[in-house]
């Protein structure tokens, strides 16, 4: 059976689905499943399936925090298999960075948006709080922008993504985990409002643009660090 955690739980509660004979448990997009509000549902399902089973997690990125959570649900002899990429970033993506003081970062972001032609863009933040703050500030300045993070319901995320694909939303501000569900080939720009903590997350962000042999641009906002001589 293939299903979302919510649908599987619904069938279990209605006693339509029994999992006592499950031999294989597979979590696709494992970091999303363990980090986007699904973890309680996953734990409930795991309490139902047999302990003696094969557990497989698939994920394009596996940050250290998620590895620790994942190991809790697996046997001690679990193996981490990583496929080495031929290239770290696409040759179709041009990368730029702007240095700015931390308290002027949002102002610099607005100047970039106003001075460059962008069909659309994903603006990445590290936390859900940062996403909400940036979206609120951008909406006050009348930018066509919406948020994408784990506190939004699945329906909200799907509706926002549908509008983004149709061009009804120009700017999407997102966390790394929420951006995993974004599969759009014509994103012209990716903007790192905040740097990720993991190298592979940075690479994953770049991969949102320059797809299907199209040109893309990555813009990094780096805050100035005061040097003590």
> What is the mean predicted local confidence, pLDDT?
83
Reported for the largest beta sheet, the result is:
6 strands, parallel
Q: What is the string of SSEs from the N terminus onward?
A: HEHHEHEHEHEHEEHE
Q: In CATH's first tier, which class of the largest domain applies?
A: Alpha Beta
What's the β-strand tally?
Answer: 8
Write down the CATH topology of the largest domain: Rossmann fold
Q: What is the global morphology?
A: elongated
CATH superfamily of the largest domain: P-loop containing nucleotide triphosphate hydrolases
Instruction: Indicate the structural class.
Output: alpha/beta
Span of the ends, CA to CA: 62 Å
In which range does the helix fraction lie?
Answer: 25-40%
Number of individual domains: 2
Count helical runs: 8
**Cα gyration radius (Å):** 20 Å
CATH architecture designation of the largest domain: 3-Layer(aba) Sandwich
Strand order of the largest sheet: 3-8-7-4-6-5
Poorly predicted ranges: none
Question: Strand percentage, roughly?
Answer: 15-25%
Domain Helicase C-terminal: 105-229
InterPro entries: DEAD/DEAH_box_helicase_dom (IPR011545), DEAD/DEAH_RhlB (IPR044742), DEAD_box_RNA_helicases (IPR050547), Helicase_ATP-bd (IPR014001), Helicase_C-like (IPR001650), P-loop_NTPase (IPR027417), RNA-helicase_DEAD-box_CS (IPR000629)
Pfam families: DEAD (PF00270), Helicase_C (PF00271)
GO molecular function: helicase activity
């Amino acid at each position: 059976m293939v299903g979302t955690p919510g649908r599987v739980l619904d069938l279990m509660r209605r006693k339509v689905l029994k999992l006592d004979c499950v031999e294989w448990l597979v979590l696709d997009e494992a970091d999303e499943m363990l980090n986007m509000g699904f973890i309680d549902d996953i734990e409930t399902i795991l309490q139902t399936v047999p302990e003696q089973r094969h557990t497989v997690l698939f994920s394009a990125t596996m940050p250290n925090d998620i590895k620790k959570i994942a190991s809790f649900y697996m046997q001690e002899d679990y193996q981490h298999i990583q496929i080495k990429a031929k290239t770290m970033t696409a040759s179709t993506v041009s990368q730029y960075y702007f240095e700015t003081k931390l308290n002027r970062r949002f102002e610099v972001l607005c100047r970039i948006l106003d001075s460059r032609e962008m069909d659309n863009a994903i603006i990445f933040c590290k936390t859900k709080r940062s996403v909400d703050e940036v979206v609120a500030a951008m909406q006050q300045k009348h930018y066509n922008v919406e948020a994408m993070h784990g506190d939004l319901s699945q329906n909200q995320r799907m509706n926002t993504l549908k509008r983004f694909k149709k061009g009804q939303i120009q700017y999407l501000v997102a966390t790394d985990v929420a951006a995993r569900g974004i599969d759009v080939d014509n994103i012209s720009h990716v903007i790192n409002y905040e740097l990720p903590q993991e190298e592979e997350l940075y690479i994953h962000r770049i991969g949102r643009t320059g797809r299907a042999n199209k040109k893309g641009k990555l813009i990094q906002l780096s805050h100035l660090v005061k040097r003590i001589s």
